[in-house]
């Protein structure tokens, strides 16, 4: 529970840097932080290496401006340079 609360506070802090922006959440896990950020962001893309986490995030958090993708641990990210205004990566 303590780790969860730490994550929530961290994402709350990040909201000021993500409002009305396109955001990449690198290492999004189960997606609750990405969903928090999506409430004020223009768009949020959450990526993670854990297939189960991405599947859970997709099923649990459905918003028009929010998407989740699985990536390989050693892969180059499939986004062009300057695709995002803000990149988050907490507790990865």
Please name the defining characteristics of this protein.
alpha/beta, Rossmann fold, four-stranded parallel β-sheet
What's the CATH architecture? 3-Layer(aba) Sandwich
Radius of gyration, Cα only, in angstroms?
A: 12 Å
First-to-last CA distance: 18 Å
Question: What's the name of the CATH homologous superfamily?
Answer: Vaccinia Virus protein VP39
CATH topology: Rossmann fold
Helix % is: 25-40%
Order of adjacent strands in the largest pleated sheet: 3-2-1-4
SSE pattern: HEHEHEE
- Overall mean pLDDT score? 95
Q: Classify the beta-strand content into a percent band.
A: 15-25%
How is the secondary structure organized here?
Elements lengths: L1 H17 L3 E5 L5 H7 L4 E6 L2 H10 L5 E5 L15 E3 L4
Parallel strand pairs: 1-2, 1-4, 2-3
Helix pairs in contact: 1-2
Description:
With 92 residues, the chain is of the alpha/beta class. It has one domain: 3-Layer(aba) Sandwich (Rossmann fold), CATH 3.40.50. It has three helices and four strands, in the order αβαβαββ. It has a four-stranded parallel sheet with strand order 3-2-1-4, covered by helices on one side. α3 links the parallel β2 and β3. α1 runs parallel beside α2. The relative contact order is 0.26.
